[in-house]
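Lab notebook, entry 104. We have the chain sequence and a SMILES string for zinc ion, and the next step in the workflow is to get a structural model of the bound complex before anyone spends time on docking refinements. Request logged below.

Task: model protein plus zinc ion, output structure tokens.
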Amino acid sequence: MAKTEVIYCKAIVKTQFSDPHQCKKGATKDGYCKHHHPEEYAKRAKAKQDKIDFDFQRHLIEKGGLLMHAALTLILEGHDNPQALARVTLEEISPTGNILDIKT
Ligand SMILES: [Zn+2]
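Result returned:
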């Protein structure tokens, strides 16, 4: 029986414990293993960025909510310049007026 030659993934990998070397996994598509295929890599990178974006948006909403709650409490207690307080609060939350630019 003829020995089947394994075609290794063409990705060059490096860890903190090794010098750059060719991946030792078998190639499954386009010369790459499943882990190093550019499409899979892009999917993982997008999923990671989506998680970062989601966490960042949640953080922004929480901070904005806290500042608005504080401002509304001051207005309810009779703040003598609610319009100025609203302006300062909005500037603190988002200097550009864009919800995506909320300060952290
Ligand atoms: Zn690989």
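Notes for the group: DSSP finds two helices and two strands in the chain. Worth checking against the assay data. The helical segments are 38-76, 82-93.
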